[in-house]
Amino acid sequence: MSQPSSTHALPKVTHLIFDMDGLLLDTERIYTQVSEKILEPHGCKFTWEVKAKMMGRTTKDTIRVLLEETGAPLTEQEYFEQSNAMQVGTSSRKEIFDVKTSQNQPLFQHFNSITCGDDPNVKLGKPHPDIFIEACRRLGNPSPEQCLVFEDSLLGVEAAKRAGMHVVWIPDSNILKLGHPDDHGACEILNSMEEFDPAKYGLPGFEA
């Protein structure tokens, strides 16, 4: 599936920026399993409708949304502690990034720079554009219009658009089943990174 957002020609870009959780690494599945285990004793369900509202947010905002939407009788700190006890971590702080990527070094060695959520220049989480603006700065400050972002969440798509960048949206199939706004702003909606054609954006093709 490839769904362009409009009939206009796709932009020509020079720099690529990738979200990590749920896109490059299958961490969202782990987060889902942990949330289900924490909520089950309280008779609360963790649905894709709830998950869709959480994806792309900071750890604090994610927990707040989850508790508000499910009505689970837990404080944010209680949920955070239980979650951390079940998994490696729940945010993209630098030390957690190191743990998450430790088994995937050949992949991440291809990246020119890494921007984490606890970077001092990232004041606000998505849908604010801070993390993409900082990522752009670390790449040498190319024009935002020369940057193409890959995201799995609508909040991430919105953040990238606010930064003045182009976006390819690669959501979980369960998110698409919920429907999505026609004005999402992404250049394309893809099922996976394997469907991405760099030549469409003026980039060199994949090596054989």
Automatic annotation (TrEMBL):
- InterPro entries linked to this entry: HAD-like_sf (IPR036412), HAD-SF_hydro_IA (IPR006439), HAD_2 (IPR041492), HAD_sf (IPR023214), PGP-like_dom2 (IPR023198)
Quote the Pfam families the UniProt record gives: HAD_2, Hydrolase
This chain's source organism reads Dispira parvispora
Annotated SUPFAM superfamilies: HAD-like (SSF56784)
Q: What is this protein called?
A: Uncharacterized protein
Entry GO MF terms: phosphatase activity
